[in-house]
Amino acid sequence: WLSTLPPDLQADIMAIISSYPQSQTVFAKLYNHLLNEESLPKRPKTNGSTSISTPQQIQPPQHQVVQNQIQNQNEPSNSVLITLKDPIVEETIIFEIIQTSFISPIRKKMSLIFHLIERNGQPLPVLSIVHPTTRVPEISVIDLTECVKLCAFIPIVGNSSNPSKKSIALLCFWIKDEYIGSSAVKDPIVLQVNLDMVKKQMISQGKLPPDIEHQFEKESPTNVNMNPIQERIIDYFQRQFKLCGVNLMNYLPCPTLSNIKYTLNRDSAVAVSSSNSGNNNLIIVECHRGAKEGVLLFVTGTEHSRSYIIHGFKKPILMFDVAKIMYTSYNNITRLTFNLLLTVADNNEEKTLEFSMIDHAFFQVIDDFIKSQNINDNSFDDTLREKTKETKDEEGEGGAEEEPLNESEDEEDDDASYNGGDGDNYSASGSDVDEEFDSDAGSKSDDSDVSEEEEE
Q: Is 182 found in the same domain as 298?
């Protein structure tokens, strides 16, 4: 019945139910009472009386929901990935980010939409990656409260230190493995969000006043923190996500609303903290994994999520629960760089991974995180050094530990980049929505010569 109401009223009721779950029964009784009142004979009008027209009941859109077919009988039956074959109806949309660039699990411009479907007579929030022209979801996820492992706004190294690009950040969703299954896409949902473009979208939708920029002082051209409007957009995101059962963690610097500030902001590393003690909530440093460039993220746990070390953002994106990291170590320490080794428990076996070419200037901030998480340091273990050498030899012979990628994915990874563009890719008009996203477009790196693949 909730899906029959206007979107604004849906959001208000869901907010109340989220805070007071027992109120759902009261709302349902009220709805049934009003339906019964409509079915009663109308009283004759008296002279001078004001007639109140009864609004026509809106039938909830009937999406065809088909659970993904499980290819392997050993896969869990509680997969949260579903297939929606019909275009999303406007009245069911709770929140959307229109036509933005996705990095994972697909690489092209799509829309991210939270919307409602009906299951067993009850409204069910769904997160969908939607084709911006057909409005048909390509990937949809349900049971968001249970299945989302980590959802976060993350600054982009390089953009964070540039005032003209600070508004372009990453929005990431990691789904718990037990809710996906081995045949499904394992990579998280990662997309770039341009907060300045979102501002224009919200103004056009009437969610922000047209003169909002005149309500605040003009920001300094050298300011790398979020401005007051961007802070309020992030806060709006967090409230909308909460309505759908998702706790959105924000790691963008919002000194006014959330006291999140940069403790480190360089072209190759970022750290943010909301604590006066200086303990970092998030650290990001550039590194290499074999021949691939990438970044390491060190995420401190909160009441809503655990602590993680993440390597991204080229496939495969690796995520390690700190609780499953047996020990770390450092090697190849020079005046300029060092390597970090993680030994993790993987199916009751030890697995060691090496991340190299980390700037020595950030050794202390990483070591402080490792010590704060009580991870053992085995830097002086000769056995570990031998294992690392064996791993390198195996990788040199083609026995890489990473998940195998097909040829098209390899080509995608070659021209994919974690570094954001200048924001031109986020224009809501005049862009080819079917064109594959190349996040190195406009950069001066050698990869810019790689031509984009045309989508079939």
A: no
Question: CATH number for the domain including 72?
Answer: 2.30.29.120
Range of the domain at 355: 265-397+409-421
More reliable by pLDDT, 48 or 366: 366
Note the pLDDT tens digit of each residue in 169-206: 999 999 998 887 654 567 899 999 999 999 999 999 88
Instruction: Tell me: do 64 and 23 sit in the same domain.
Output: no
Residue 277 pLDDT level (bands cut at 50, 70, 90): low
Question: Is 306 contained in some domain?
Answer: yes
**If DSSP states are collapsed to H, E and C, what string results for the chain?**
CHHHCCHHHHHHHHHHHHHCCCHHHHHHHHHHHHHHHHHCCCCCCCCCCCCCCCCCCCCCCCCCEEECCCCCCCCCCCCCEEEECCCCCHHHEEEEEEEEEEEECCCEEEEEEEEEEEECCEEEEEEEEECCCCCCEEEEECCHHHHEEEEEEECCCCCCCCCCCCCEEEEEEEECHHHCCCCCCCCCEEEEEEHHHHHHHHHHCCCCCCCHHHHCCCCCCCCCCCCHHHHHHHHHHHHHHHHCCCCCEECCCCCCCCCCEEEEECCCEEEEECCCCCCCCEEEEEEEECCEEEEEEEECCCCCCCCEEEEECCCCCEEEEHHHEEEEEEECCCCCEEEEEEEEEECCEEEEEEEEEEEHHHHHHHHHHHHHCCCEECCCCHHHHHHHHHHHHHHHCCCCCCCCCCHHHHHHHHHCCCCCCCCHHHCCCCCCCCCECCCCCCCCCHHHHCCCCCCC
Domain count, the chain: 3
Residues 30 and 123 in one domain: no
pTM of the model: 0.71
**453 located within any domain:** no
Q: What percent of the chain has pLDDT over 70?
A: 69
The verdict on residue 84 lying in a domain is: yes
Evaluate if residue 64 carries a pLDDT over 60: no
